[in-house]
C-alpha cells in the first residue's frame, strides 16, 4: 500500500508575497516534486515577527493566533525563510505560555514547522534536484535560519546537485548582512556598514551569483550591490533549486 503523501502547508511570507512571488512558486514546485501535497492557506497572515521584535506582544500574539488556526491542521508547515520559520517554531510557544487553549497547539505547530531546504533535506531525505544553473555562486547564511534552525549544510548539499553550478564560499558567510528586520530601520548607519562589509566579502569570492534563503537579507544585499554598480546576480536559493531562474530576473533587475 502506498503511504499517503505528507500534507504540507506553505507559509509564503509577507516579503515573498509582496516582492518576490517567484520564490513561493519555486518552493511549491520543489515540495510537489518531492512528493508532498501542498496547500497554501488563504487565511495566512504575517507571522508577527516585526511586532514581536519591537516589543508589541499584543499584536504579535494576535497574528500568531491567526497563523496557528490556519496551519495547525496540516502535517507540516514549511517556509522559504528561516526567519519566519524560526519565529513560529521557537517563539510562538512563549507567546501562549499563559493561554491553555493555544499553548499546546503552538508547541505542536512549532515542532512541525521547517525552513524549506531543511525540510527537503532533513525531513524528506532529498539529496539532489533536477535543475541547471551555469555559474559560480556564493551563499549567505541568514541569521535566524542558521542560529535558530541549524540551516547551513542543507542548502549547500542540494546546490551541489545543480548541474553547471559551483559554490565558492565567502570568508565570513555567517556574518549578518545588517538587515535584521526592523534593525536596519532603527540603526541605519550600523546596518549600512554591515551590508557594505558583506558586499566586499561577496566580491572577494569572484562569484557571479549571490544566494540565500531569506528574502529580507537578499533585498538588503541586492540593494547594496546595485548601488555599488556590481554585476553580481542575487537570487533566492529556492529559485535555483527549482530550476526557474529563466522565468524571472535576478532580484533588483528588470526583465
Automatic annotation (TrEMBL):
User: Which part of the chain is the Cysteine-rich domain?
Assistant: 8-88, 138-221
Give GO cellular component annotations, separated by semicolons. Answer: cytosol
One Pfam family recorded for the sequence? CCG
Molecular-function annotations in GO: oxidoreductase activity
Q: Which InterPro entries match?
A: Cys_rich_dom (IPR004017)
Q: What name does the UniProt record give this protein?
A: (Fe-S)-binding protein
